[in-house]
Every structure is written in C-alpha cells, then in structure tokens.
Specification:
The structure holds 2 protein chains of 2 kinds.
Chain A lengths: L18 E3 L8 H10 L5 E5 L8 E7 L2 E7 L5 E5 L14 E3 L3 E2 L6 E2 L5 E3 L21 E5 L2 E5 L7 H5 L1 H10 L6 E11 L3 H4 L7 H4 L1 H5 L7 E5 L5 E5 L27 E6 L3 E6 L2 E9 L5 E10 L4 H13 L9 H13 L5 E3 L23 H11 L6
Antiparallel strand pairs in A: 1-19, 2-11, 3-4, 3-6, 4-5, 7-8, 8-9, 10-11, 12-18, 13-14, 14-15, 15-16, 16-17, 17-18
Chain B lengths: L5 H19 L3 H6 L1 E11 H5 L7 E3 L2 H14 L7 E16 L2 E14 L5 E14 L6 E9 L3 E2 L8
Parallel strand pairs in B: 1-6
Antiparallel strand pairs in B: 1-2, 3-4, 4-5, 5-6
Classes of the chains: A alpha+beta, B alpha+beta.
The complex binds FE2/S2 (inorganic) cluster (FES) and fe (ii) ion.
Chain lengths: 395, 162
C-alpha cells in the first residue's frame, strides 16, 4: 500500500456550503489534528459547575481532548482546574471521577499538593538540585473563566475572553439554563457512550425534532413559536415556546410532562457550544451535557442535572422525575437521537457527501439567518471546523 | 438467610425468573405483571445511588408510570430503536425478614446483549437488584425493584428495562 504523500491534504472540502464529506466522520487520521486545532486550540470547554463540587476539597476529574484534568474547590473558595499529573515525574494524582480531599498526595514519592495546587511537601528535598524551589512545582493550572457558576477552560492564551467567545445570543440564554444566577444544586448524572464520532454527536439539527421523535406527536406537542441563532464560530442557540396539551391520551401519568415554570414562551432552550457541548432547559429540566470524544470512535456524554437552590420540595421532586424520564439516553422523548448517532456512524462509511437541505437558500453562500426548524444552522459550525482544520474547498 | 423458609425463597426466585424471562422475551405485559399496584421501578447508576443523587436512567415511581413504561417500549420507540436481544443472569445474594409488609431481597445481575446487525454479544451492564417483595398472596410481586448498575457509563442507550 502506498503511503500518503506528505503534501497531499487529508481531505478536500466540497464546493457547496451545504455539503459535508462523509469521510469527516470516519477518517481516524483527523483525530490528532483535531486535538491540536480544536481541543488544545483557541476554544473554551466547560468542565464543572460549582454545584458539582460545592465544598472545599471537592474535586471532579475530566478530560480535555486526551489530557486528564481535574477541577478542585480550594480552601479559599476558588475553583481551579489542573492537569491530572504530579509535577515530579508525572504520576496521575486523581484516580476517581469525583471525591473530596484535604490534600492531594502522589503515592510514588509522596509529594503533597494543597487543593490550591501548591506543592507543600516533598521528602528528601535537601538532596534535590541546588536551585530547587517548591514554588516552581505547583500543579499545572489551566486558564479558566466562570459564567453563572460554570467553569470553562482553554489551552490557549489567545482564546478571546469567554463572553466574547460565546457572544450574547449564546450566553444570555445560557444564564437562564443555569438558573439565572448560577445558584444550582446537582441532582445527578446519566452517563453513556455513544457509538459515533464526536462530530456526528453534535450534528443534531433543528429539522429532525418533530419528525424523528415520535413522542412529539403522541404527546400532542404542537410546534410552538421559536427561533434559532448561530454565531460565526459555530455556537447554536434554539429557543421555543412550550405548548403543554390539556390532556395526553397516550400516557396514564402525564404529570411527568407538566410545566411548572413560569414562562411558556421560552419553555425550551437548547444550546450547543463549539465543539460539542449541549445545554438545555426543556420544560423544568436544567441540564448540561459534558461530552468527551474517546478518540475518533465513540463519544462519552455525561448528562448533569440540576435543581435551583430556591426550589420547593414539590419542584425538586418534579425536576427529578422529569429529568430521569424524558431527555436522557433512555428518555421517552430523546432516545431516538441515540439511535440516529450510531446509524449515522454506520451509514457514513459510504462515499460522497452528507447534504443539508432544510433552510438552505444558496448552496454557494453561508447564511446566518436560520429558522427554528432549519438544519442549515449547523453549516456555520462546519465552516468553522473546516477553517480551523485548514481544509481547502474544491475549486 | 437461615430464618427464611425455603418456600419464601422459592417464591422470590420464581418472581425473579418471571421478571428476567419476560425481559429477555421482550414481553412487556408480563414484566408489568411482576409488579403490584403499589409497584415502583428504578434503574439508577451506582455513582448516583452511592452519592445520594436521585437522578435515574428510568424512574417509575407509581403503577401508572410502569404502565407508561410499557407504552414507551411497545408503541413509542419501537420503530426507531436498534433492537437487541438481552440475556439476564442473576444470583440471589440475600433475603431478609419482613419489614414494611414485604421481604427484602438482593440479587447480583449481569446483562449481555446481542446486536441484530453484527450479531455480536457484549456486556450491557452489571449490578445489583434491591427488592421489596409482597408475598401475602399466592404469588409474589414487587412493591419495589431498584436496579443499581455498577456500569456507570452505559455502553449504549438502553431501550428496555433491565
Ligand atoms: S511522581 Fe509524584 S512524587 Fe514522584
Ligand atoms: Fe433530537
């Protein structure tokens, strides 16, 4: 088999803006490049909400690309995110996905770190190099920013400030998903591996919802008024009215579908930040979906659900019932999404391009005007991906 | 387990057999019949269970929800699910004397699934059943079956109860 020539591009992008090469979901060679250009590049990635680690010493492990990291609630009340590696010879410090520790000890040579990341102890240091100074061996901290209690990280100094990066059309509804003021309480996780490339996972669109999701018709959910907003760097925001039917014939206990919030006109908010995080407030569910590509094949998604600190017992109970039954990987309304992810993965092992139609007016021009149920809202995201990956369009 | 009569244990085992055979046959009405009118079903990750976080993968906290679970599997999701064949393996690990009007039982379980497209078999999840069982009538029934899965990250979406 001939080796690929060095000067040969991995992929040529189609001329038309509404076409995406199917190979983009399948080529394993793209992954190392995506790591550098996207996951270690100029993008922000949400890692943890304050409500997940509310007490000093609480920590949560995660990954950024292939790099293990962890977030810790410091004794000083600050949340910091560190690389999960001892600054001596690199042993991983955290081996559980969450917990609470007063200090972080590396078992290998017993170097000891505070929850603020400082090196506070290292045995036999009188025999270290002459200029050894503990201060130079603090844990490697990632650049981070917080919004409504949600902490984001980036590997680049050049990434714009978080709010500029997200844009108002995104961070304003995000604030509402995060309870308006970020005063949330964690009520649990649903974790699952989707059998698809991470780009198939986040290519879910505004067109499919009433068509794929059988529950929509069955539950008599009429498409309420709504809109979709896209940003140039690939973030998407959907907002729509919830019309709760008076009676749901299909279910014996329709209380799980109740809307107890106050404003039906924005009863459903779904946001997708580039590269692959989904946030939603659908009816009374407050949900952040942290997503982790497992290399080029497989996307692990951690659905985190919250209540608001001001909720009464009835509202808490309702949010728990709704969150456990409707939108997750086994949910009444959403399970079909999971099915499509793996079917996209299978079907795209064929030649040619995936072609977007709904909402596309001019195939040769990128448009940022999209309607609620258009799939064209995904195209700015693909264009952003193409550019940062450096793929040329076909002449 | 010594104080529990063989007859009681036999009824608990029989109920569990009915339950897992119904699921492997995807016979949802028979699955539903394993519960009594006070019945509840929860399928929850061990991580949440251990940390007292109430979110579950499936949470059917009344008989009507159990009926709706049947509707969901049979009517709502049947045309878009990639169906799979399960085999449930269980082992009774404990039975304790009556409280709350029922017997407490625990089983270890593992569930394998075989995909219909590749025909390959993989492990779906492993964990424990925590049961509260009513044995006041001729046949036993669940007041509560809590399925706690050690497999905190599911290897695929789960379309049917476990
Ligand atoms: S590698 Fe951590 S103390 Fe040596
Ligand atoms: Fe969907």
């Amino acid at each position: 088999m001939a080796n690929q020539r060095n000067d040969e591009p991995l992929l040529i992008w189609p001329k038309k803006y509404n076409e995406v090469p199917k190979a983009v979901f399948e080529m394993e060679e793209l992954w190392p490049k995506e790591l550098n250009a996207i996951f270690y590049g100029e993008e922000w990635h949400p890692i943890v909400h304050h409500a997940e680690i509310p007490n000093p010493g609480d920590y949560k492990a995660a990954e950024l690309g292939e790099m293990p990291i962890f977030a810790v609630h410091g004794e000083d009340g600050e949340i910091r995110v560190f690389q999960n590696t001892c600054t001596h010879r690199g042993t991983a410090l955290i081996t559980e996905c969450s917990g609470n520790k007063k200090e972080f000890e590396c078992p290998y040579h017993r170097w000891l770190f505070s929850p603020q990341g400082e090196l506070v102890g290292c045995p036999n240091s009188q025999e270290f190099t002459a200029d050894f100074d503990k201060k130079d061996f603090s844990l490697h901290q990632l650049r981070s920013e917080e919004f409504c209690g949600l902490h984001w990280v980036t590997m680049s100094d050049k990434t714009p400030p978080l709010k500029d990066y997200l844009g108002e059309s995104f961070y304003e509804p995000l604030g509402r998903i995060l309870g308006g003021d970020g005063r949330l309480k964690l009520i649990g996780y649903q974790k699952i591996m989707y059998n698809c490339n991470w780009k198939a996972y986040c290519d879910n669109d505004g067109y499919h919802a009433p068509l794929l999701h059988k529950a929509f018709a069955l539950l008599n959910w009429q498409g309420g008024k709504g809109f979709q907003k896209v940003t140039e760097n690939g973030h998407l925001a959907f907002e729509s009215e919830i019309k709760v039917p008076d009676k749901v014939e299909a279910l014996k206990d329709a209380s799980v579908l109740d809307f107890k919030g106050t404003d039906t006109s924005s009863g459903s908010i779904v946001l997708m930040s580039f590269p692959l995080t989904v946030f939603s407030k659908h009816m009374d569910m407050l949900n952040v979906r942290y997503a982790f590509p497992r290399g080029p094949k497989g996307t692990e998604v951690h659905y985190a659900y919250f209540t608001h600190e001001d909720d009464d017992d009835e509202m808490i109970r309702h949010r728990i019932r709704q969150s456990s039954n409707l939108l997750g990987p086994c949910g009444l309304v959403s399970m079909e999404d999971a099915s499509v992810f793996s079917r996209i993965d299978k079907g795209n092992k064929t030649p040619g391009n995936a072609i977007f139609q709904k909402g596309v007016e001019d195939e040769y021009k990128l448009s940022f005007t999209v309607k609620q149920n258009d799939e064209s809202g995904n195209l700015p995201r693909w264009e952003h991906y193409r550019k940062i990956m450096g793929f040329e369009r076909e002449k | 387990m010594s104080k529990i009569s063989a007859e009681i244990i036999q009824k608990i085992e029989q109920l569990n057999r009915d339950y897992i055979c119904a699921l492997d046959a995807l016979d949802m009405p028979t699955w539903l019949a394993c519960f009594n009118k006070r019945g509840q079903y929860t399928f929850i990750a061990e991580e949440n269970y251990r940390r007292n976080l109430p979110i579950a993968f499936m949470l059917d906290d009344c008989y009507e929800r159990l009926q709706d679970r049947v509707t969901q599997v049979v009517d709502i999701q049947s045309d878009s699910t990639e169906h799979y064949q399960t085999r449930h393996f269980t082992q009774l690990t404990s039975v304790t004397a009556p409280e709350d009007g029922g017997y407490r039982a625990e089983f270890n379980f593992s569930v394998y699934y075989t995909r219909r497209d590749t025909n390959q078999t993989q492990l779906l999840c492993v964990g424990r059943y925590f049961d509260l069982i009513d044995i006041s009538n001729a046949c036993a029934s669940y007041i509560d079956r809590k399925v706690v899965t050690d497999t905190n990250v599911l290897p695929r979406y789960i379309a049917y109860p476990v």
